[in-house]
Amino acid sequence: MQTIEEVLQRLKSIVESYKSANDPRCYFAELYRQMTQRVSEGIKNGAFENGARMEKLDVLFASRYFEAIEAWDSQTCSQSWKVAFSETEKNQISVLQHLL
Has residue 19 got a pLDDT over 90? Predict the structure, then answer.
């Protein structure tokens, strides 16, 4: 993955997949997609001092999230992600808690 547009496409796919599975992880994924969309718009509109650097940071950060999702799905994620993702399986937490 090299561009923010690729990140947006992957996030869109993840959101659609989670929504169709009624997976509460869709809340965070959708928030993340919306924030990434705003960063993309900011880059295009010159809102950042160095748009290329911002895009690189965005892609790198998103890659870590995607790697964590894949690791969770294969039961090999780190303890910190395990705590975050395991909470999404509990029905008693609010949407706000999912987002945080």
Answer: yes
H/E/C letters for each residue in the chain?
Answer: CCCHHHHHHHHHHHHHHHHHCCCCCHHHHHHHHHHHHHHHHHHHCCCCCCHHHHHHHHHHHHHHHHHHHHHHHCCCCCHHHHHHHHHCCCCCCCHHHHHC
Number of domains in the chain: 1
Angle in degrees, CA 71, 74, 76, rounded to 5: 55
Phi-psi region of 68 (alpha: psi -120 to 50; beta: other; left: phi over 0): alpha
For residue 82, what pLDDT band results from cuts at 50, 70 and 90? confident
What is the model's pLDDT at position 32?
96
Give the residue carrying structure tokens 């950060």: 61
The pTM of this model reads: 0.82
Angle formed by the axes of helices 4-20 and 26-44, nearest 10°: 160
